[in-house]
Amino acid sequence: MLPRDQETGKRVNSMAHIPLRMCIACREMKPLPALIRVVAAKGSDTAELDIHKKKFGRGAYMCANADCIKKAEKKRCLERHLKCSNASELYRQAEELL
Questions:
Q1: Long-range own/partner contacts, residues 49-53 (CB < 8 A, 24 or more apart)
Q2: Distance between CA 25 and CA 71 in Å, rounded?
Q3: Where are the beta strands (DSSP E) in 2-92?
Q4: d(CA 73, CA 67)
Q5: For 41, what's the count of Cα atoms within 13 Å in the CB-facing half-sphere?
Q6: Sequence-distant (≥ 6) Cβ neighbours of residue 73 within 8 angstroms
Q7: pTM for this one?
Q8: What is the pLDDT along the chain (98 residues), one digit of tens a residue?
Q9: Fold of domain 27-97
Q10: Dmax over Cα atoms in the chain, in whole Å?
Q11: Residue 85: left (phi > 0), alpha (psi -120 to 50), or beta?
Q12: pLDDT given at position 25
């Protein structure tokens, strides 16, 4: 049975929900804080890093490690997923972010 909140008396789940997303390079499900988000704005052929993970637009996620960023660059994952023209710059920015 779930514990009850002291103030409201409602049952609460003691474990917080952590959203999972798939890395476009290694295809593994990882918790959201361990990933880097890249967003393509609607109607534009460029994309940008979304540090705060709040921007609007189509997003893709990469693991926050150099191996996955290099793998994504080799497989041209951002070009395929977001159809962006500035992907090489985004890979460089993601590596600097680490």
A1: 49/90, 49/93, 49/94, 49/97, 51/97
A2: 6
A3: 20-22, 29-31, 35-40, 47-50, 58-63
A4: 10
A5: 10
A6: 87, 88, 91
A7: 0.80
A8: 666 766 777 766 666 778 999 999 999 999 999 999 999 988 888 999 999 999 999 999 999 999 999 999 999 999 999 999 999 999 999 999 98
A9: Hypothetical Cytosolic Protein; Chain: A; (3.30.1230)
A10: 54
A11: alpha
A12: 96
Q: How many CB atoms lie within 10 A of CB 11?
A: 10
* Look-up of token digits 């609607």: 42
Tokens of 21: 């997303």
Strand duo 47-50 + 29-31: pairing = unpaired
Extract the tokens encoding 87.
């992907």
Ranges of H-type helices in the chain: 66-75, 77-82, 87-97
